């Protein structure tokens, strides 16, 4: 089984990210946390700072079994604004790999990224009003 990557952005929901990492690792799944920042330091939505295992690099993630996106705000919005995250998700989707997006992450991506083209309809249409980018459905 390949690696599972949990991608962290400033403003991530701590319980959604850290409980997921804890459960995956307890289950024996090779799980790596990655920061979208220039450093491994990532601050959660409630001010808890964590050190990710590494920094996102799409070239090193081609063998991913699963990509996990925690929700939280502004974490989900920061994930959408990261070109590397969008690149990784499009590649994962194209190869039929697993993507697990939690809480605010799925609707935020569906409403605000190229990942949504030809995909499911938005789950929470009200987020359109909060979008920093144009909706690309």
Which keywords apply here?
two-stranded antiparallel ribbon, disordered C terminus, alpha/beta, 137 residues, 5-stranded parallel β-sheet
Could you characterize what this model shows?
The chain is of the alpha/beta class and 137 residues long. Helix content is 28%, strand content 19%. It has helices at residues 14-26, 75-80, 83-94, 105-112; strands at residues 4-8, 31-35, 41-43, 49-51, 54-55, 66-69, 98-101. Strands 5-2-1-6-7 form a five-stranded parallel beta sheet. A two-stranded antiparallel sheet has the order 3-4. The protein is globular and about 35 Å long. Mean pLDDT is 82; it is low at 118-137.
Topology of this structure?
Blueprint: E1 4-8, H1 14-26, E2 31-35, E3 41-43, E4 49-51, E5 54-55, E6 66-69, H2 75-80, H3 83-94, E7 98-101, H4 105-112
Parallel strand pairs: 1-2, 1-6, 2-5, 6-7
Antiparallel strand pairs: 3-4
Average per-residue pLDDT, rounded, comes to 82
- Please write the string of helix (H) and strand (E) elements: EHEEEEEHHEH
Helix tally equals: 4
Sheet having the most strands: 5 strands, parallel
Low-confidence stretches: 118-137
How much of the sequence is in beta strands? 15-25%
Query: What is the number of beta strands?
Result: 7
Overall form: globular
Q: What's the end-to-end separation, in Å?
A: 33 Å
Residues in helix, %: 25-40%
What structural class should be given to the helix and strand makeup? alpha/beta
| Main sheet strand line-up | 5-2-1-6-7
Taking all Cα atoms into account, the compactness measure Rg is 14 Å
